[in-house]
Write a structure and sequence with these properties.
Elements lengths: L3 E5 L7 H9 L5 E5 L5 H6 L2 E4 L2 E4 L3 H22 L2
Parallel strand pairs: 1-2
Antiparallel strand pairs: 1-3, 3-4
Length: 84
């Protein structure tokens, strides 16, 4: 399972550009940047990204990075459970 992590270019002012670059370095992740993800209110208020279509938001870019990795672990655990 390759998680799809999507970032909004308009949200980069919150520091998500650094998070995106770090995640892009992992060949196990599909990382994409779009001009707009259609979540303008959220985009204005806090760092966020989509992980497999689910909004992951945090108070800071650093905590967003951690939350994204935690979500990926949760998804992988669910896939492992379902494949047993």
């Amino acid at each position: 399972m390759r998680p799809i992590i999507e970032f909004c270019a308009s949200n980069m002012h919150t520091g998500t550009d650094k998070v995106m670059k770090d995640l892009e370095a992992n060949p196990e992740f599909d990382v994409m940047e779009y001009g707009c993800l259609g979540n303008c209110g959220q985009c204005y208020m806090e760092p966020y990204a989509l992980v497999n279509g689910e909004i992951i938001a945090a108070e800071s870019a650093e905590s967003l990075h951690t939350a994204i990795l935690d979500k990926i672990k949760e998804i992988e655990a669910m896939y492992d459970l379902l494949s047993e």
